[in-house]
Amino acid sequence: MTTLQIAEEVAAALAENRPVVALESTLLSHGLPAPRNLAVAARLEKVVREVGAVPATIAVLDGVPRIGLTSAELDRVCSDDMLKLSLRDLGAAYALGRSGATTVASTTALAHQAGIRVFATGGLGGVHRGARETWDVSADLDVVATTPVLIVCSGVKSILDMGATLEVLETRSVPVVGYQTSRFPAFYRRESEFSVPWSVDNASQAAAVFAAGERGMLLVNPIPAAFEMDSALHDRLLAEGLQKLVDQDVRGKDVSPVLLEHFHTASAGVSLDANEELVVNNASVAAAVAVELFQ
Ligand code: PSU
Ligand code: MN
After folding, report:
1. 214: how many CB neighbours lie within 10 A of its CB?
2. Ligand 2 centre from 31 Cα, in Å?
3. What domains does the chain contain, in order, with CATH numbers?
4. Which atom of ligand 1 lies at the shortest distance from residue 252's CA?
5. Would you report the helix, strand and coil content of the chain in percent, each value rounded to 5?
6. Could you report the predicted ipTM of this complex, rounded to two decimals?
7. What distance in angstroms lies between residue 124's CA and the mean position of ligand 1's atoms?
């Protein structure tokens, strides 16, 4: 098996039992435009540090799985043409010496392999609308069900079939826990029509639930109210984006990036601000939970 290359700071924290938070790179290279993505990457690492944990952004560079990146490497992830690597793609990327950003699925697996227990992202992948015909269900669901890592996210992107995604999570015995909310968040919106089975009031409770359950868990954290997207704008962008997929015959791993890009370009940056703020907020909560886990 290919050996992980763990940044010195991250390795030291893991060895000394200090809190570490994993961050993914697909949301940077395929979910946000350059150069905004680099500013977001830096902000994510900064907020994790401020709360008292060590950030570990994960990617594959020249065939090597990297846990924790230097600022030059972060720059590369944000500006170079990166492959989108899910868990199925890691072997090929390693063997063929390729570079790519890791999705929630592959980041979770690599974080676990490195001994990191907490991971922050924007939205989990899930069951796509139309999955009854396309079978398009993100590998993220499978990995969270089988890997004991706590993932902090703002629910799943509203571009997905949320009800079906929640059903799969229930079937796969994934605990979905609301962070100061009883509703399942809808990424750009604070609430969806769905409720969550459990809620916690603070990071300490979240850490206790995770530690007691000893399995992959979703801590769902709504977007900060000031950055929530207007619902009419949101619904219009979603309808347009879904039509674009049909018109351009977009499939598979390109679906999420194309939809996100439509949101960003057609909302004059409103969705970009929303996306940035929700991920930063998730990184902050993840760091707080990581700190609690090591108390
Ligand atoms: N969250 C974001 N932006 C993103 C993603 C999540 O705010 O771009 C990415 C994650 O990396 C997630 C992926 O794993 O979208 C899901 O892709 P797919 O639907 O192809 O499995
Ligand atoms: Mn897919």
Report:
1. 8
2. 14
3. 5-293 (3.40.1790.10)
4. 20
5. 50, 20, 30
6. 0.92
7. 6
User: Is residue 16 very low, low, confident or very high in pLDDT (cuts 50, 70, 90)?
Assistant: very high
Give the list of residues 6+ apart from residue 127 with CB closer than 8 angstroms, or none. 136, 137, 138, 141, 160, 161, 164, 165, 167, 168
CA dist 294 to 8, 45, 56, 203, Å? 20, 19, 17, 12
Instruction: Kindly give, in sequence order, each residue whose CB lies less than 8 Å from that of residue 237, ignoring residues fewer than 6 positions away.
Output: 262, 263, 266, 267, 271
Distance CA 209, CA 283 (A): 18
If pLDDT is split at 50, 70 and 90, which confidence band does 120 have? Answer: very high
pLDDT at 59 over 90: yes
Q: Omega into 175 within 30° of 0, i.e. cis?
A: no
Q: What tens digit of pLDDT does each residue of 226-257 get?
A: 999 999 999 999 999 999 999 999 988 898 88
Q: Is 254 annotated as a binding residue?
A: no
| Model pTM score | 0.96
- Taking each helix axis from N to C end, the angle separating 139-146 and 162-171, rounded to the nearest 10 degrees, works out to 30
DSSP 154: S
- 104 marked ligand binding residue: yes
